[in-house]
Amino acid sequence: MKLIEFKQLLDQTGYPVAYFQFKTTESTPAPSPPFLVYYTPSTSNFKADNKVYSKITNITVELYTNYKNLAIEQTLESLFEANDLAWEADEVWIESEQLFQRIYDIGVI
């Protein structure tokens, strides 16, 4: 799966989506939660004999919500599973922003 295809999957949620961060200006403020941010922090390629046999891109998806929203999480997780994307999740409360951050780690081949 290419990164553009992954972005198109996230767009299916209907929530605002940006790569790494939303660029905010006076005319385009940041969206109100819920919203999604995704980025590719690293790779976990399968290697042997000094070659990369399978490229694996690690994608992080961050879901931001004002409150713990199980329905949105289920929508996102179902989307991943319907597209054969294995995921792991963590969650934090960002006190300074008064937001929940649900962090999904996905390996895409």
Walk me through this protein's architecture.
- The protein is an alpha+beta fold.
- The protein has one domain (3-108): 2-Layer Sandwich (STM4215-like).
- The chain is 20% helix and 42% strand.
- The protein has 2 helices and 7 strands, in the order αβββββαββ.
- The chain has helices at residues 3-11, 70-82; strands spanning 17-19, 35-43, 46-48, 51-54, 57-65, 87-94, 99-108.
- Strands 1-2-5-7-6 form a 5-stranded mixed sheet, with helices on one face. A two-stranded antiparallel ribbon has the order 3-4.
- The longest helix has 13 residues, at 70-82.
- The chain is globular and about 50 Å long.
- The model has no long low-confidence stretch (mean pLDDT 95).
In short:
The chain has 109 residues and is an alpha+beta fold.
Give the helix/strand layout.
Elements: H1 3-11, E1 17-19, E2 35-43, E3 46-48, E4 51-54, E5 57-65, H2 70-82, E6 87-94, E7 99-108
Parallel strand pairs: 1-2
Antiparallel strand pairs: 2-5, 3-4, 5-7, 6-7
